[in-house]
């Protein structure tokens, strides 16, 4: 079905919405898994790494956990697909380096980039809200088959600078940061719990149900739904 919205900005989820979950799980997860050990042992003093390690220890209640124990915890969280902030932080560091080296190239569904370029050209703000860290988001959008897409984007938000994706307060924080009224923001996601939270915060919402994606069969609740971005019309109505 098609959906039309009078809004000023669009906020994008990534996994399952702009990009295939399979790519994340089958390519990015193994890449980070293979590089956690050297990151934790050779770069433990770096502020971002040290902060993430401290967060892992706090979440697990193991204040004395060493690098080996931290790595085991990260890998267990990967197996669970747990959206833990320190895991996403450390993944982001590893992935950013992989994208910079050319080991990794981001995946997007074919309909996404043309839509983003069209919406940007029409003057709409484009933002990202993903469980993946801002570092990972920046690397993802800058290393694509279409070149660097970062110039299309405004704010990048994750569970650290905005909060959990199923909590309405996170969406209120993003609205405040963008300076756009909640009712003028449109959130695109494949997960009904996230869509519910955004709507509770006053946002407009669209559920993206892409064939073959993990959340397709479960539907998007009572939110408007589309299969591709081609079915979404967004813009600002004068007056």
Q: Could you give a quick summary of the protein structure above?
A:
The protein has 239 residues and is of the alpha/beta class. Helices cover 44% and strands 13% of the residues. The protein has nine helices and eight strands.
Percent range for β-strand residues = 5-15%
Query: What letter string, H or E per element, gives the SSE order?
Result: EEHHHHHHEHEHEHEEE
The CATH superfamily of the largest domain bears the name: HAD superfamily/HAD-like
**Total of domains:** 2
**What about the largest sheet?**
6 strands, parallel
Cα(first) to Cα(last) distance is: 28 Å
Q: What is the CATH class name of the largest domain?
A: Alpha Beta
Output the strand order for the largest sheet. Answer: 4-3-2-5-6-7
Mean pLDDT across the residues is 95
| Tally of separate helices | 9
* Low-confidence region ranges: none
Rg is 18 Å
**What is the name of the CATH topology of the largest domain?**
Rossmann fold
The CATH architecture term of the largest domain is 3-Layer(aba) Sandwich
Percentage of helical residues? Answer: 40-55%
Shape: globular
């Amino acid at each position: 079905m098609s959906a039309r919205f009078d809004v000023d900005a669009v906020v994008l989820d990534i996994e399952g919405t702009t990009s295939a979950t399979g790519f994340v799980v089958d390519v990015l997860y193994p890449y980070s898994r293979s590089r956690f050990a050297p990151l934790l042992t050779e770069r433990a003093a770096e502020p971002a790494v040290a902060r993430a390690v401290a967060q892992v220890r706090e979440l697990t209640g193991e204040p004395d956990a060493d690098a080996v124990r931290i790595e085991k915890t990260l890998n267990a969280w990967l197996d669970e697909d747990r959206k833990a902030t320190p895991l996403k932080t450390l993944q982001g560091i590893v992935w950013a380096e992989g994208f910079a080296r050319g080991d990794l190239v981001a995946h997007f569904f074919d309909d996404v980039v043309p839509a983003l370029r069209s919406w940007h050209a029409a003057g709409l703000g484009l933002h990202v809200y993903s469980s993946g860290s801002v570092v990972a988001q920046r690397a993802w959008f800058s290393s694509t088959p279409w070149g660097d897409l970062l110039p299309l984007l405004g704010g990048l938000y994750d569970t650290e600078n905005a909060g959990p994706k199923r909590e309405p307060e996170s969406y209120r924080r993003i609205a405040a940061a963008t300076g756009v009224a909640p009712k003028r923001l449109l959130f695109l996601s494949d997960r009904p719990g996230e869509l519910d939270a955004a709507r509770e915060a006053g946002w407009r919402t669209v559920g993206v149900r892409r064939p073959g994606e993990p959340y397709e069969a479960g539907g998007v609740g009572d939110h408007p739904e589309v299969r591709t971005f081609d079915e979404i019309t967004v813009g600002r109505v004068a007056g």
